[in-house]
Amino acid sequence: NPPPANRRATGLIPGDGIGREVIPAGRRILEALPSSLGLKFEFTDLDAGFETFQKTGAALPERTVDVLKNECDGALFGAVSSPTKAVKGYSSPIVALRKKLDLYANVRPVKTVASAANPIDMVIVRENTEDLYVKEERTLEDPARGGVYAEAIKRISARASLRIATIAGEIALRRQKLREAGAASIHTSPLVTITHKSNVLSQTDGLFRTCAKEALAAPRFAGVAVEEQIVDSMVYKLFRQPGSYDVIVAPNLYGDILSDGAAALVGSLGLVPSANVGEGFAIGEPCHGSAPDIEGKGIANPIATLRSTALMLEFLGEEKAAAKIYAAVDANLEEAKLLSPDLGGKATTEEVVSDILKKL
Ligand code: ATP
Ligand code: MG
Question: Are 23 and 80 a contacting pair, CB within 8 Å?
């Protein structure tokens, strides 16, 4: 007898642009998971984004937040367009969601297929609530400083640093478990690299460093190797030897820069997933934006979204289901017959999705 259906309420927030073309793929792959896994998904369509703002005056309607908070186990978020000029009253709904749901970790796996010439398999874990992103800036004037000057607060707390390092350690352990369960990987043992610039910022980054080390020294992380690296030398090594990283943990700003840089190592933004993770809740979100240049053409690569869907499942504790999605995506990429144009192929979004569903 199959196990009782494990119901999972999933919010779907397509947003703008190609978000509307790729989020349906996430839904389809969840619906296509084998029934032997015993999972049953219930979907709720939710609005957010620039178009929602233009229609209703709110980029993130209250209903979206309420449903996510009270009814959902996880969600998929597509993309929102960022208007080139600041629009009065508009601000990014995903930034607001991270705050409202306390999604304190941004998790970004960057991975090539195993057969790549220089295989990469790393995860960047970015602190997502503080650092320079507290956006406490001001512009002042002082003749002694030559006139106008501006400054910004970089805020680092022990609490946020401890919890981001803890989740990085947990991710490293889970990746090890996935490997032991047969997942292909270039790594053989878990490693967390702590990134900072404490040689210059001894108090802020110094606190991050101390707390990260403390969190990762917990007995349950005994099997996780921990190293640290100054962010500038990290960038160098990231580009020279990307295969040597497993899990990287970083404060907000360095994490932002490192994760976009790492995404460039795998060829297309259309491949790179992410998850916004809090206590018991995760939103899968492809790393790309709304891609106005290809919107409506039906050629957006759905893989970033499919991998984000798998990542969401990982954080819901459904590693088996996640592993099946990763394997189906890898099979499509290894075979390289049905690839979207960003990867040099000719396949449409629909053709790529059908191929991956077939492989699943
Ligand atoms: P936004 O303001 O919403 O971030 P953008 O103009 O920055 O939009 P991105 O979505 O960040 O655009 O994309 C950058 C480039 O990568 C674009 O040329 C886009 O077409 C391409 N791209 C992004 N995502 C995909 C995808 N899923 N499939 C194919 N190409 C993509
Ligand atoms: Mg962009």
Answer: no
DSSP single-letter state for residue 155:
B
Kindly tell me the sign of the dihedral angle through the C-alpha atoms of 129, 41, 180, 272. negative
Pocket of ligand 1 (CB under 6 A): 17-18, 79, 81-82, 269-270, 288-294, 300-301, 304, 340, 342
Rounded to whole angstroms, the Cα distance separating 88 from 281 reads 31
Question: Alpha-carbon distance 80 to 255, whole Å?
Answer: 21
pTM: 0.93
Contact indicator for 46, 70 with CB cutoff of 8 Å: no
Q: Which ligand is nearest to the CA of 49?
A: 1
Q: How many angstroms separate the alpha carbon of residue 42 from the centre of ligand 2?
A: 30
* Residue 8 near residue 73 (C-beta atoms within 8 A): yes
Ligand closest to 264 (CA) is 1
**ipTM attached to this prediction:** 0.95
Relative to the CA of 22, which ligand 1 atom is closest? 27
Q: What are 163's strand-pairing partners?
A: none
Number of C-beta neighbours around residue 109 at 10 A: 25
pLDDT in tens, 176-230: 988 887 777 889 999 999 999 999 999 999 999 999 999 999 999 999 999 999 9
Half-sphere exposure of 291 (CA within 13 A, CB side): 22
CA distance 260 to 75: 22
CA of 290, closest atom in ligand 1: 3
Tokens linked to 208:
């991050």
